[in-house]
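Something for you to look into today, if you have time. Could you write out one complete protein record for me, on any chain you like? The space below this message is yours for that.
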Amino acid sequence: MEQGGSIRATKLVVTANLLLIAAKLIVVVLTGSIAVLAVLVDSLFDLVGSLIAYAGVKKGSEPPDSNHLYGHRKYESVSSIAQVALIAAAAILIIGEALRRLASPIALNITLADLAIMSFTVLVDVGIVAYLKKNADQDSLAIKASIGNYTSDIMQNSLVLVGLFSAMVGFAAADPIAALVVSVLMMRVVFGVGRGAFGELTDESPSQEKLEEYGAEILSVKGVKSFHKMRARMASGEVRLDVHIHLDPQMPLFRSHAITEMVKQAIFKQFPEVKEVLVHAEPATARFMAGPRFGT
């Protein structure tokens, strides 16, 4: 999916967030529910997070320049980290207030109209996730963070809806319990999305199994005797690969260059996630072939 689709998607998410915030604010004012307050705070942070995601996707779509020769894709990872940091802050605040209300239960005044409004927020979240999956770049970490967040929101708002109904029929503890579960779901998103974003910012490599697959494809190219110094790093779902291949020492330069191009094309064809391959040709001598295949 083109970057333009991701930018349009993030704009729509910002608009939808405003609608969700208004709906949840109405329910909070009418009921005083801590669970609804929890998802309201989450939506407020979602709005800020959506603005951050928009900035990250827009900046990440910029082409390489003199100061960023590898492009700007890691700005999306930065925006992803910012989003999950906001979610974590909200979850911690909610846990504290929910525990306080468990210790000192508060009777809530809940009506069918309140339940209807919360049902509406669930439907809006479902629509957001469906739209993002269809129209946004699925390799973008910023978009992944948004999808993960709103998928969690579907569960959260559904849980809050059950909690409100339970509180309405007399189970007062249902509201703070729902708030606690919402907080756990929020932290799950934090650890899931945050780990991937942090890994990319620290140049985490693909799995060893994936590196072995790259190596097998390189060795399948006619003329390649071996390789070493393979390195790979990820950025917003894309992989950049460096490798030294070993060729016949007597091979003419033009033939050596042709094989390096064949290696690149073989990797690109077999592994669409690889967007850049740097191949260095070396003579197949004991000195070069003795080095470790992976790493520097």
In short: The chain has a mean pLDDT of 82.
